[in-house]
Amino acid sequence: MTKRIIVNAGVTETRIAVQDQNLLTELYVERARRRSIVGNIYKGVVTNVLPGMQAAFVDIGLHKDAFLYGGDYTASLGGDESLAELPGAEDEGVDVDVMEADAEARREAPAQPIEEMLHRGQEILVQVAKESLGSKGARITSFISLPGRYIVYMPQARHVGVSRRIRDEEERERLRQVVRGINPPPGGFIVRTVAEGRGEEELAADIQFLSRLWSQVQSRVETARAPSALHEEMDLTFRVVRDLFSAEVQEFLVDTPEVYDKCVDFARMLVPHLVSRVRLYEDRTPIFEATGIEREIDRALRRRVWLKSGGYIVIDHTEALIAIDVNTGKYVGKRDFEETVLKINTEAVSEIVRQIRLRDLGGIIIIDFIDMERLEHRDQVFRALTKALADDKARTNVLEISELGLVEMTRKRVRQDLQAMFCVPCPTCKGSGVVRSDATLAAEIFRRIRSEAADSPGEEVVIRAHPEMAHHLEVEERDGAERLQAIIGRKVTVQGMPSYHREQYEVGFR
What we know:
Layout: E1 3-9, E2 13-20, E3 23-31, E4 41-50, E5 55-59, E6 66-69, H1 99-107, H2 114-117, E7 123-130, E8 139-141, E9 146-147, E10 151-154, E11 160-162, H3 169-181, E12 188-191, H4 200-223, E13 228-231, H5 236-244, E14 251-254, H6 257-270, E15 278-280, H7 287-290, H8 293-300, E16 304-306, E17 312-317, E18 322-327, H9 337-359, E19 363-368, H10 375-389, E20 396-398, E21 406-411, H11 418-422, H12 438-453, E22 460-465, H13 467-475, H14 478-488, E23 491-496, E24 505-509
Parallel strand pairs: 1-14, 6-8, 11-12, 14-15, 18-19, 22-23
Antiparallel strand pairs: 1-2, 2-3, 4-5, 4-7, 4-13, 5-6, 7-8, 9-10, 10-12, 16-17, 17-18, 19-21, 20-21, 22-24
Helix pairs in contact: 5-6, 9-10
């Protein structure tokens, strides 16, 4: 079995995993209380225009205003006369290459200041390009894109493109001619990877559906009051059937009868020739445990990931970037040191790319490979990295390995990464990953007691602290506590408080 999709439909969240050769490569999560808004279309109201940033804030009805860059705005509320000769927004998270349509058309776009295009209180039609990440609101664009099974329709574009993953030039040209021969409605079209080998009838049906959908959106613009949603993307199961269920998927496994029926209906509508591959999982063992996915998710939340050879990689999140470090670990090689380094770095490449996709890491990523003296070895590792990234649906840009063994790359960020979705910062360390040592806390407590003793009444000082800290004060710091008692002339008592966190303490006088 090469590839399969596994659906775990829970009470509050749906998790969908993609396994390739029994290895977890992608994980999608959608919670009932917080569905993804990427792809949703809104009629919004401009709340603020920032000339200094060439950007604007737009109220689209969410708890936080969305952010619109000047370069992502082209038209107002629709209508054929307002459609500029500009490309649609890039198709987030799917396998189309809109860049060829995007670059050429955007060069022709007038460099008009945003304050001349937008003003406070103006109503505009926008689509969500990126989820709200951290403290930032959602990023929006006015370049609308509507994905179907085989086609992505971009009403403001004037271009027919083909997915970069279809590499046969004859097939690429055939698909372009098929789309042009359909006499499609005004707009741009990108042919998706799954359209390879498909005929005119299937592509025409997709275009017709997307054209009707755009007409419905435009008709709602006139009557809807801003801010309001005009079009919402379907739920996660539909999007996975539409975007990921292809001939290379040997099995589509679902663990809940209701969701199984829904997936079968979606498959009948979108990929009828693959319906037989949708199966209901009926064993009592939870599906993610039975398939080893739960263990892989736990692994993906750890800082350190071990390689089969004994080496390991370390993944650290910072405010500005993500750093990935490659280490030899337990692997010492057999003969030549350079060959040992090459083997570790080459093995690390596939695991790094898998973790980047699985954790959905985005933004700036720095990979610190083990230093390689030989230029041919650096070239070999770089080629392996670019080849492994070729299957990544998110757009990446990779610079060559430096002499220090560093690779700088960027990966398009659309949604929260796995860590941000599943974890919250530790309330004790505030996300730093470290807490103060026992010796440091003891010294701080003793300084505070000396400082407050002169102005505080009472014959006894009581220190309340976490049980482990209390034990440290009573045993390891006994001499220090006795010297403190002599200095302040009072008895010092320590009480362990199980409800206190590791760094919490209180000092009282009585």
